[in-house]
Amino acid sequence: MCGRYASTVTDQELRSLFDVVETVGDPLPPSYNVAPTQTVRVVLERAPKGEPGAEPVRQLRSARWGLVPSWAKDPKIGNRMINARCETITEKPSFKAAASRRRCILPADGYFEWQKREDGTKVPYFLHGDGVLAMAGLYELWPDPDLPDDHPDKWLWTVTVLTTEATDAAGQIHERCPLVLPPSFLDVWLDPALTDRDDVDALVASVPEPHLHPYEVGTEVNNPRNNRPELLEPV
């Protein structure tokens, strides 16, 4: 699964790495312990608001981690939807609409995972690659029924991280891991013209396994209130 990650890359670096055209919202400070329900930066492609027929542009914007479907009656449902199993995203009611039309990327330095030992203890590890990880995600917009249509906070933007069966080093720590997209997959993943669910399934199935490097970190990361660079230091 993916229940915690680190994201310290600046907006300027993200714009360059992901060919972002439009930046929406204020930059976020570096986070060494991103936790569910927190605000995160995401990359997506979307047509400019108020311009019918306009071509989609690649955006960098903020969203809350924990997907809230547009039909949800209570946004608290997002607290349980921080991850989506990539094997079923085109089937489950909570994810299938977003899988067809609202895919995104969550940039990360790496993510944390906990390995369960025989004595019942859980040991935290940090898994990273050779650069910024492009974790595949889905996003949704939830309309707050208590706010008027012209209110700036009418629409709540939320995201979820896709997970897949863990292999390589990640599989030794936990059976699930984020779906990490190689650079050659970014354009097609973000393309809103890709709407056929079978094609989305085929794309997900073709993503190669990432080669991640794990190392043990201190248990201070267990508390989401802790957020400092030392959390990423090896034990």
TrEMBL record:
Keyword Methyltransferase: no
Region (Disordered): 214-235
UniProt keyword list: Covalent protein-DNA linkage, DNA damage, DNA-binding, Hydrolase, Lyase, Protease
Molecular-function GO term, any one: single-stranded DNA binding
One Pfam short name: SRAP
Family affiliation: Belongs to the SOS response-associated peptidase family.
Record's protein name: Abasic site processing protein
Origin species: Rhodococcus ruber BKS 20-38
Upper taxonomic lineage: Bacteria, Bacillati, Actinomycetota, Actinomycetes, Mycobacteriales
